[in-house]
Amino acid sequence: MSIPLSWYLILAAALFSIGLFGVLSRKNAIAILLGVELMLNAVNINLVAFWRYLDPVNMAGQVFAVIVFAVAAAEVAVGLALIISVYRRRKTVVADEIDLMKW
Amino acid sequence: MMFLNDPINFIAGWMRDLLTGWGLSNGLTTVIIYFIGITVLIVFAMVLDILLVWVERKVVARFQDRIGPNRIGPFGLIQPFADIIKLIIKEDITPAGADKLLFNLGPVLAIASVIILWAILPLSSKIFGVDLNVAVLYLVAAGALGTLSIIVGGWASNNKYALLGAFRMVANMISYEIPMVVVLLIPTILADSMSVQKITQAQSGIWFAILSPLALIIFLISAIAELGRSPFDLNEAESEIVAGFHIEYSGMKFGLFYAGELLHAFTFGGFMAVLFFGGYGGFFGLEKIGFFSWLNNPFVQAVVFLAKAMFGYWVIMWIKYSMPRIRIDHMLAFNWKFLTPLALVVLVNTAVLSKVLAGLPNWGYVLGMFFSNIVIGFITVEILRAYGRKQRKAEAKLSPQSAQNQEQAA
Amino acid sequence: MTADQIIFLLCAALIIVSALMVVTTRKLIHAALWLVAALFGVAILYVILQAGFLAVVQVVVYIGAIAILFIFAVMLTRREMLDKGAQTRSNWWLPALLGLLILAGLIFLIIGQPAFGRTAAAMPEGVDTLRNLGTALVSPDAFVLPFEVASILLLAALVGAVYVASGNKE
Amino acid sequence: MTTLIWLLPLPPLLAFFVILLFTNKRKALSHGIAVGAAGLSWLGSMIIFIRALGVEEFGKHVFGSSINWLPTGSTWLKVGVQIDPLSAAVVFFVAWTVLAIFVYSIGYHNFGQPKGDHDVAGLPPHGTTITEHGHKHTVPSIEPMYSRFFAFISLFAFGMYTLVVSDNLLTLFVGWEIMGLCSYLLIGFWFGKPSARDAAVKAFMTTRIGDVFMLLGIAFVYSFTGSLSFSEIFKPEMLQALASTPAFFGLSAAGIIGLLLFIGTVGKSAQWPLHVWLPDAMEGPTPVSAMIHAATMVSAGVYMVIRMFPLISAGWTEGMPLNTTMSVIAFIGAFTALFAATIAVAQNDIKRVLAYSTISQLGFMIAALGIGAYVAAAFHLVTHAFFKALLFLGSGSVIHGMEHWVLHTDDHVDPQDMFNMGGLRKKMPITFWTFLIGGFALSGFPVLTAGFWSKDEIFAEAFGNGHLVVFVVLAMAAFLTAFYTMRQITLTFFGEPRTKAAEHASETPWTMTVPLIVLAIFAVGYGWVGIPEHFPGLGGLIPNWFHEFVGGTLAELPKAVEFSWVPLITSLCVALGGLFFGWLVYHKVKSPKQDFLQIPVLKNKWYFDEIYNFVFVKPASWIAEKFTSLYMDQTVIDGLLHSVARFSLFLGHVFRNYFDKPIINEFLGDGTGNLVKASGSGLRKIQAGRIQYYMVVSMVVLVLFAVMYYFLIGGM
Predict the structure, then answer these.
(1) DSSP structural state of residue D349
(2) pTM above 0.80, yes or no
(3) What is the CATH number of the domain that holds C46?
(4) Is there a contact between A32 and D696 if contact means CB atoms under 8 Å apart?
(5) What confidence score (pLDDT) does residue D51 get?
(6) What is the ipTM for the molecules in this complex?
(7) Is residue C5 located within the same domain as residue C66?
(8) By the number of CB atoms within 10 A of the CB, which of B380, C17, C84, D395 ranks highest?
(9) What is the DSSP string of D44-94?
(10) Contact status of C102 with chain D (Cβ, < 8 Å)
(11) Domain of A34?
(12) A103 found inside a domain
C-alpha cells in the first residue's frame, strides 16, 4: 500500500467540488441530485480512506460509510419522487421554474 | 502428479518460471498471468455457452415432442456454430434516432454481467477464479449490472415496445432481487460465511437443500425471475410487446443478448448447486472413506459441479417450457404479497433454529431444520388454500353463474 | 511508481473524467450513466482500500438501485428523447469559481498537513473485516442504534416516496 | 438464557396492548396476535425447560438474574427472575395450558361465524339466522367482544408468567394481582348478565380478603429479613433466625408469615372458608374463563405456598410433629378436600361439578403440603393442571355442542345441566374420549393415568409419615371424587339422549378438539415421570425423575417415603370403587328426581353463600347507604366541592377583566403582530424562491467564514 493518504483526500476533494459545481450550475433538478450523489461519494471515499489508514481494526469508518449509503438511497428515493410529482403538476423539472415559494 | 491435484497453480507456476526466465519483471508477470487466466475463464464460459445453445434446442425439442437439430454433425452438434455464423454475417441495423453509444453498450453489459459471475464460480476446490468473502453479495451486484444492461438497451433503441419491455424487466428484476437476497442469507447463516468455497465445504456433510428446501424453492423462483425466463418472461412477451427490449437488435448484438440469457441460466444453475447441492462436493462424507478419495480430485469435482449445474439449468428449462406466461400485476403481487414474506419467515426460522438446535446432535439438527421447513411449507399451503377458497366464495357471490360452475367442478 | 499507484491513478482519472461528464454533458441519460461509471471507479477504490464489502454494496446500492432510479426519473420526466438547449444555468461561472476555490482551499489544507503524507500500514493478520463490520453494526455497545435509525429512515423514505410519486391522489 | 427468562412474560403483555389499542375491530388479527404471543412465550418456556433439563444438580445452580429496583436507604430492593426446578415444572404446564386455552377460545367464540342478528356487547351471542339451500335456520354467531376477550386472556397469561418466573415476593404479588384483575374482568365478561356481574364482584372481593393478608405477610417478611427475594429469605441462617424469633400468639415469626401468606393462598386457590367465589366464577364465558380460574390461576395460589414451603416449614424436619402453621394448612386442605367433594356430588351443572372438584383437588395439594409432602404437592399441582384443564375444555366442548340445538329451535333447555344430556358418547366422540381420560385421571384410575401417581404419592406420604387423620379424610375425598366424576361421565355421555338438544349435539371444530387431544396426552403421560422407585412391577422402569428434579429445589433432597401396600391398596380401592359405584348408581338415572343425592344442604353448598350474605354483605351495604352516601358524600364532601367551585369562578373573572384583556391581548398580542408584519414585509425581498440561488449564497458565506476562520483563528 504505497499510496499516500493525501491522494485519496485530494481525489475526494476534487470529486466534492465537481459535485458542488453540478449542484449549483445544472438547470435540471435530476442533474442537481446527480451532483449530490457525487458529493456523498466524496465523503465516503474520505471515510473509508481514513478507516484504512488510521485504524483498520475499529470499523467505525466503514459503518459510517454504510450509513451514508442508506442516507443516499433515501435521499434519492424521496428526491426523485418529489421531482416526478412536481413534473406531473407543473410539466417542468427546471429548478428555477419551480419557485412557488417566492414572495 | 502435481498437475492432477492442483492444476491452476501448477500451470501458473510453470508460466511464472517461463516468463521470469524471459527476463520480465515480477509484477508484470503477475499481471500477464492474471490476464491469461481471465481470458481462459471467459473462453471456457463462452464455449460452454455455445454448447448450451445446442442443449437448449435439443431439450426444448424433446419437451415439444420433436427431435431438434440433428442434421449438421453428430446429433446436430455443429448446429450452434452454424447459428453463430449466421448471426455474425447478418446485417447489423442501428435504428434511426437511437442513441448509438448506449445502443451498443447494452449487449456488452448484458454478456459482461454474466461473465463476471464466473469469477466466483467454484468449479472445484482448486479450480476457481477468486474466493471472495462477499461472494454471495457479489452475485446480487452482478444482477444489478444485468438490470442496467437491459434498461440501457431498451431505452436506447428508441422504440416504445423496447422501452415497455425494459421497464417490465427492471420492475421484475428489482422486485425479485429482494426474496433472492433474503434467501441467499440462509446458506450464509448455515455455513457462517459468504464465501462460496466455505459454503461448499460446509455442505460436505449434508446439503443445504435438505436443511432448508423452502429456501431452495424460493431461490429457484426468484432466479428464474431474475433471468426473465418463462413464466416471468414479460420482458419479451411476443404476444403483447413484440419482442421486448431487444426488438431493435439484430445480428450478433441480439446474439449476445441470447447467449447472455442462456449462460445466465446455466450460471444460476451452478449457483443453485453451490448454495444448496454442495457444489463440487457434498458426497455426504463419502469422500472421507479411503476407497472414494478420488472424489477429492479437482477434475472429478469439476465434472460433478458441471453435472449439478446442468441439472439446475435443465430444471429451469423444464419450467420454462411447461409454464404459461403470467400477467405483470400477478407477477408483482406474487412477489410482494407471497414470496418476500415467505422468504423472511424462512430466514427468521433458519436463524432462530440454527441457534436453538445448535446444542443437539447432528441428526437432531438436520431433522429439526428439515421438519421446520416442512411445517412452514404446510402452513403456507393451508393459508393459500384458505385464501383461494375465500376468493372463490367472493366470485360465487359476484355471479351465480360461476357459482354453479364451481359446484359442478366440485 | 508501483503497480497499485498506477491502478489508483487510472481509476482516479476514470472517476474525475466521468464526474466531469456527469456535470457537463447535455444528455441527461448519459449523465446518469457517467455517474454509474464514476461510482464504479469509487467501488474499485474501495477494493484497493481492502473494503471489499463496501465495494460490493456500492455496486448493489448505487448502480443497482440509485442509478436505475435516476434513469427511470429521467425517462419519466421528458417528452422527447434527447435534451436540447443549454443544460447549465446562465451564471454557471459563479459555481465554477466557488468549486475551484473550495478545491484549492482543500488541497492547500491537505498539502499543509504532513501527517497526510503517510502510507497505510499492512492489514493486521487474522482480522476478518467483514465479520468485524457485521458485529459492529449489530452489537449494542457499537453501532446498533445508528444502524436501526438508518433502517427506519429507509422505511420512511420508501413510504414517503410511494406516497409522493403515486399520481392518483385527491 | 436469563434474558430469555426476562422476556418470557412480555409477548402476552404486548399482545394485550396491541389488541386493545389497535386491532380491536379486526377479529382475525386479534386472535392471531394473541395466539402468536402465547406461542412465543410457549417457545421460550420450552427452550428454558429443555435447558433446565440439561443442567446437572439444577436445584443448586438455577437460572436467574436480578436488577436493583428501588433504593431503600443503603440497600436496594431487588426484583428479578429465576427459574428453578419447581418453577420450571410449573412454567411447563402453564405454557401448554395457556396455549391450549388461546387456541381453544378461537373455536369457542365461534370464529368464522357471521355476526349475530341481535347480539349486544356484554351478552353471550344469541346466534344468527341464515338461509341455506332455501330454508332458514339458526347457527351460533361470533362473540361481539371477541378481540377484547383475547386482550384479557393475554393480560392474564402475562400475569401468570410473571408470577412463575419472578424470584421475589414482590413481582410474584404483582402477577398475582394482575391475575386477580383479569379473573374479575373475565368472570364479568358478559356484564350484561346480572349474575355475571355479581359473580365478578364476589370473586374480586373474596380474593381481596386473602390478598390483604398476603400483603401483610409480605410486609412482615420484608421488615424481618430486609429482602423479598426467595434466595435471600431461604438462606438457612435466615430461616433459623425466623424460626427462632418469637412473634405473637406464641407463634414464631416464620409461623406468622407462613400463616398470612397461606391466607392469601386460601383466597386465591378457593380453600374453605374463602371457596365461595370459585363456583360462581363459572358465570364467565364457558369454559375458558372457568378453565383459567380452575387450571391456572388457582394453581398460582398453590404454587405460591409451595414456593414458600421452606419458610413455612422453617425449623421442621421430616419425621418431626408438624408445627402449628403446617397443621393449620393440613387441616384446611384436608377439610376443603372432603367438604368440596361432598358438595360436588350434588351439583347438576356440569361446570359446577368441575369447579367443586377443583376446590377439592386443591385441598389435596394443600393438605399434602401441610404434612410436608413437598414433591407430592408439586406433582399433583402439575398433573391436576393438565387433566383439569382437559376436563373444563371438554365440558365447554359439550356445552358448545349442546347449544347448537338450543339455538336451532327456541326451546330453552339449559345446555349445562347434565340431566339434559346423555348419550353424547356417539355424537361427540373426540370430546367423549378425551373427557373420559381426563375424568379417569381426576379420579386416579390406576397405573394408566397421571392423577393416580400424584394422588398415590400424596397417600403414601400421608401414611408413611403417620398422619392418619389426613390420610383417612383424603381417602374419603378421593372416593367421592371418583364417584362424582363417574356420575358426571355417566350422566353426560352414556345412556340415551334425554333431550332433543342432546340428540342433535354435534362435534366441535378442530380448534377446540386439538387442544383437548394435546392435553389428554399429558393427562395420561405426565404421571409416568413420577413413579416411585419401589412401586411393584413398574417401579424403577422409568426413573422417578420428578422427585429428583423438583425435590432439588429444596436445600436437602427430601427422601422418598418408603413403599407400603396400605396407601396403594387404598387408592386402588377408592378410585375403582368410586368409579364403579358412580356407574352403578347413575347408569339408569333419568332425571333429578331419581337422584338420591339431591339433598338440599349439599345442593345449597352448606348454605355458605347465605351465611356470608347475612354476616358481611348486608351490614356493609347498610353502612354504605345510610352513613357514607347520605352523610359523608352529600353533606360534607359536596359542600366542600361547591365552595371551591365558587371561589375559582370568582378568580377567573378577576383574571379575565384585569389581566388578560388589557395586558396580554392589547399590548403583547397586537404589538408583536405589527412588529412581525413590518419586518416581514421588509425581509421578503431576499426570498427569490430558487434553490440554487440560496445554495450559492450559503456556499459563498461558508467559504468566507472558512477563510476568516483559517486566517484569524486557525492561522495563529
Answers:
(1) B
(2) no
(3) 1.20.120.1200
(4) no
(5) 83
(6) 0.69
(7) yes
(8) D395
(9) HHHHHHHHHHHSTTTTTS-EEEEEEEEEETTEEEEEEEEE-HHHHHHHHHH
(10) yes
(11) 5-97
(12) no
